[in-house]
């Protein structure tokens, strides 16, 4: 029997596991879209751990919602949402991070993480790599639609998807 996935707010002692999940997820997701030297940088995990430590303790991130998914006590997914850096009409939250290790895709961890950081009735936006059909299908399933905005960040083409619940 496969142990259940638990989703909960992130704690400071999760920072190292969160960093490992993010880096491994980037390697699984962006290999071939981003340069290998970025994905394989020996300091990548340490830099992400510093980021997560800051995000969990610094006042600048106080309004953000940060969660982890665990299975058997190990972090397998991470999510973070908060106020948009540049407010836009129509949506109030930005999904900055949502990654689940590939071995746990389909476990429900991604949906639970999304719901933990952005309630289904809340409007939100996110950027998703293009092409990334699996992630785009996941977000469409959860009410997000492309709004036609495109950017290139770190050499990766991204499309913006927004969710504006109809019962608002």
TrEMBL record:
Domain N-acetyltransferase: 5-166
Coiled coil: none
Source organism phylogeny: Bacteria, Bacillati, Actinomycetota, Actinomycetes, Micrococcales
The keyword RNA-binding is assigned to this record: no
Cross-referenced InterPro entries: Acyl_CoA_acyltransferase (IPR016181), Bact_Acetyltransf (IPR050832), GNAT_dom (IPR000182)
MF terms (GO), sorted A to Z: acyltransferase activity, transferring groups other than amino-acyl groups
Protein name: GNAT family N-acetyltransferase
Keywords noted in UniProt: Acyltransferase, Transferase
């Amino acid at each position: 029997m496969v142990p259940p996935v638990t989703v909960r707010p992130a704690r400071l002692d999760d920072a190292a596991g969160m960093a490992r999940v993010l880096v491994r997820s980037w390697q699984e997701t962006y290999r071939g879209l981003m340069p290998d030297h970025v994905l394989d940088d020996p300091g990548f995990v340490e830099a992400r751990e510093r980021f997560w430590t800051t995000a969990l303790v610094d006042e600048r991130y106080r309004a953000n919602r940060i969660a982890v998914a665990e299975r058997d006590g190990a972090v397998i997914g991470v999510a973070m949402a908060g106020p948009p850096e540049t407010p836009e009409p129509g949506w109030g939250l930005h999904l900055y991070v949502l990654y689940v290790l590939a071995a746990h895709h389909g476990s429900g961890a991604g949906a639970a993480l999304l719901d933990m950081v952005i309630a289904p009735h809340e409007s939100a936006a996110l950027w998703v790599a293009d092409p990334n059909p699996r992630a785009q299908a996941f977000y469409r399933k959860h009410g997000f639609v492309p709004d036609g905005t495109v950017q290139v960040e770190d050499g990766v083409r991204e499309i913006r998807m927004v969710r504006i619940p109809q019962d608002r």
